[in-house]
Amino acid sequence: MIVRSILPELHRCLTKKTKSDEEHKLAQPTKYAEDEEVLRVPIALAMVKLLQNLPKGTLEHSLPSLLIKVCEFLRSRSKDIRNITRDTLVKIVDSLGPSFFHYVLKELRGALTKGYQLHVLSFTVHSLLKSMTAILRPGDLDNCVQSLTEVFSKELFGQVAEEKEVEGIVGKLFEARSSKSYDSYEILAKFISKSSLTSLIIPLKEVLDSTHSHKISKKVQEVLRRVTLGLIENKELKEETLLIFIHGLANEALPLITPDQKDKSNTSKPPPDPRLHPPSTFLLTSAPPRGGIKPSGNQKTNMHILVDFGLQLLYMLLKRSRVVASNTQNLQMLDPFIEILSNCLSSKHVKIVTTSLRCLSWMLKFPLPSLKDHITKITNQLFVLLKNYATAGGAQGENFELVVSCFKTITVLVRDVKFHSVDTNQLQILLGYVEEDMHDFNRQATAFGLLKAILSRKLLVPEIHEIIGKVAQLSITADAPNVRLQSRQVVLQFMLDYPLGKQLKKHLEFYVTNLQFELESGRESALEMLATIFSSFPQNILTEHAGFFFVPMAASLVNDESAQCRKLTALAIKSLLSKLHSDQRDELLNITMLWFQDEKVSHRRLAAQLCGLFTEVESAKFERHMPTVLPLILQQIEPGRYQGNEPQSLKELDHLLFNSLTALGKLLKEINIIRNPRWTEDMNAMWVSIQSHLLHPHTWVRLATARLFGLLFAAWTPEEIAQSEGVRKPKAKPGKVEEYVQQDTRQKLRELSIAFCTQLQSSYVDQELADQVVKNLVFLAQVIKLLNPPLKEKHRTVVDNSDEKPTDLKWLIRKMCREAKFEAAQNQKSSLKVCYDKWQQLVSHRRLAAQLCGLFTEVESAKFERHMPSVLPLILQQIEPGRYQGNKPQSLKELDHLLFNSLTALGKLLKEINIIRNPRWTEDMNAMWVSIQSHLLHPHTWVRLAAARLFGLLFAAWTPEEIVQSEGVRKPKAKPGKVEEYVQQDTRQKLRELSIAFCTQLQSSYVDQELADQVVKNLVFLAQVIKLLNPPLKEKHRTVVDNSDEKPTDLKWLIRKMCREAKFEAAQNQKSSLKRSSVLRWLAAVAVNLGRSDLPDYIEQMLPPIYAASVDSSLQADPALKSLALEILELMKNTVGVDVFTRAYSTLHKTTSERKEARKRQKAQEAVSNPEVAAKRKIKKHVAKKEAKKRKIQEFRPSKQVKKKKLQDMAVME
């Protein structure tokens, strides 16, 4: 029954002729598809699905006629029919599988044979290939390679390619706007098998043989490039297969492009036979044709393109590591390519030479036997290329790539080919190029790479010393950090690998001398080089030159103005000291001790810094120097040295004191001497001196002393100090010295507490000092609490005004609280500007509170309801409209952020806590919704979005039926004490106001996708309520014009407003489709809600924007918008039925066509009746085209700025 009845009926339905089939293309009234034609195309897919489930043989019997008709649909001039047919064909091929693709291709080529159909053919074939990419396997396309290449060649090299440049054809046929054959070639190469590889290339070779057009040659090159990418991705083609293919391709084409091959056509004629009579001298030769004799074509004109294709494929195999040196078979197959590549180096085609060099830069690293036979020839040819192309001004365009590749290949040759060395002359030439390229930023990388390769082979010529000297100079003077780094690497490699002897000191002196270079970058580079030398050089050399390095770097540690350079100097000195033996370090320390005893303050300051570096390097081993070092440092921190000095020397003395304290801190950290009985007397004297410096005027000194006391407190526990104070009643034993904290402990605690509190009082105190002071005071508070437990009542009235009073914890707490109170009272500004700043800060505080409130809500969720009585009123205060009116422009940004954060926090509250319809909060909710409604049209987009989201939450809490029901039953007077909710108060007026507000939000030029989505959701809900409140009006009401607030707010009014927004965007801003897509999605939702019964009453008002988007064929049309419009049309058709929809659609189509024709006639008549207006319109159009052309030129040539038209040029002059 299926075969005899159903399938023939479906086939008749599919092949039935329509009215448009019998009309001439110029006589057809419209270019748009009839509804019947669009609907019957997908029947083919259903038939294929049905045939696949029938017995074997049915599909093969019925498929050809079915495919013929589907392919004939692609002839249609209607874009919609072609798109639907193409999509159907893609689904058919996906269902049938790749094995049926050649049948489809055959029918496509038979149906689409001429004119615009050829554009449709290539476009459709690409769509089919692209859709099958996921299911194709290598070899599936072998049976249709020839057909595919013919289709591609017609589009790329035939008349079809010329038609793509005709603006009239491109504008009318979107398939002709781009060429898809390049992508199709790549897909075909990706899934081709070994046996069809030659069939893919032969058509391209024939095109190259037959053409002399540079344009076509360029196209073939691009095709071969895409084929290369496809072949590399082909999983079936092994490396051996590709190498054989490349070798055959190069061997066949290479003899035609090498200069050694002599052309047989140009061979000279043999000399005349002397035995014959000479030709008559009276015969005149024929006149030459006008324009001269045309040169005959040569087979080798374009053969270099094929050679380049093969070499590019070889290069990609090497680059992607598909051919590796560890595979013996790969090496055997790569070996014959050495001779081919060496021959290619003599080619006259730059691209072939460049690709050959790239291949050689990889293959020279492989152990290939042929390299030994051809390495000399390759080397000589490389130098010939340098001579021809690396001259000044010669490396431009393609030549630049050749020169760079040549240098890279020579670098690999010099560095990796161990069995061959360049001779002295060649090396001198290379050094000359290196010297030249070092100063060219485009070729610096290759120059340094080549120089490193030369140094790695330890090649030596007299010129290399001069080159290294210039590189060393460049390592200091170069502007770019990477150039300085590479220069230092080269010089270091030279010093490490070459036997320099006495010349080594010359290079070391260079960097030591440049520690005084005028630019900071140069000094930093010299220091980094010295640090690298210290970490890389042998220890004996560093020991020999230790003093030579130490003294200049020590001077830089004090004299350099740059903090970064001083830091690098300290690191370099530490690196040097760590590499020396202890004996050598002792000698340098003795020099430092001499500086400690010098009269100059700068020398003693330097000695203090160096002493700290020695301590960091030797760590605990430095204790052996303590008898010498500690007394000298203690001398520097004696308080008497810093009293009564002249103002000019105060800065130097402050630095000396700070550096001495810093060195002392490093000593105490590394060496455990704070509680060592051997050093008790020295420690006591030191802590007395340090305590005297706690209130030094310089903040750095205060910080250093506070840190030292932190080390002291870390060596003791509060209990140990309190215990020692408690047991120290009897007289101390003779000869035993008490430690610093055990001598008059209570008095010291008081003095230190006062000193640290005073440090905190300073107006220059920073975070670091404040943190250290707090740590010290915490320790002191613990000790004071243990020594002075809570006092009795009789002691609590004593006022702290003398030193004899008890030092208890409450006293310390009062002092600290006094500091906080003093800062709060004194550190206030009193000008009007500061008052405004403080008020602005309060706004930021409220904004912060709103954000935190939202976070609390997210954490506690419904449990946060217990805070609502206190939180909600505060948030409602922040969103009152009166707070945001009449403010200064400076405060608008802060206020906008406050309002947005408050609305966001409110949204989180409403989501987590069910209070929207809670009777307890009705009054607050009503006030809140009034405020939120006033912010719907706030200038800031974020505020509009937040307000729209809040109304979304309100609408989610109600159903349209509940609102309508409450509106219907609210006729009697409301009960006393009962407050109506927001949506129940004057519902109709609110619906109108909210609809207008949301439509206005959609009008904004700053509307984004998020806001548009929320507006659509809200308007869908409002449309449902309006439709229930105002059912379709009778005929007598439909003539009423909406020009007053008393008019009914029905659904047609809202639909007109939304359609007006879509129409306005289409006219004013065609490049954007956000508003139109939002309106279309709203119309779709309204259509679904209306259903089959009510949608026919509104379909005429809803169709215009959808129809306009679905038939838009301009260049700026959005494909996504068009697809959405087609989906909505299909939705409406299914909802109301084909008859109703077709009637409405055809009416709209007819009205639109008549209106368009009327405008055309009016413009044509205007050219006669009112020529001035027509002329102005034409001038305006030409000016717009001219400006558009200038903009395009400016985009493609950004360096050339198009001059703007001056105001004087645009003025109308008398």
Automatic annotation (TrEMBL):
InterPro entries: ARM-like, ARM-type_fold, SSU_processome_comp_20, UTP20_C, UTP20_dom. It holds the Pfam family UTP20. Residues 1176-1192 have a biased composition (Basic residues). Residues 604-833, 846-1195 form the U3 small nucleolar RNA-associated protein 20 C-terminal domain. Residues 258-299, 1152-1214 are annotated as: Disordered. Transmembrane segments: none annotated. Residues 260-276 have a biased composition (Basic and acidic residues). Residues 32-249 form the U3 small nucleolar RNA-associated protein domain. One of its GO terms (cellular component) is 90S preribosome. PANTHER family: SMALL SUBUNIT PROCESSOME COMPONENT 20 HOMOLOG (PTHR17695). This is Small subunit processome component 20 homolog. It comes from Lingula anatina. The gene is LOC106156939.
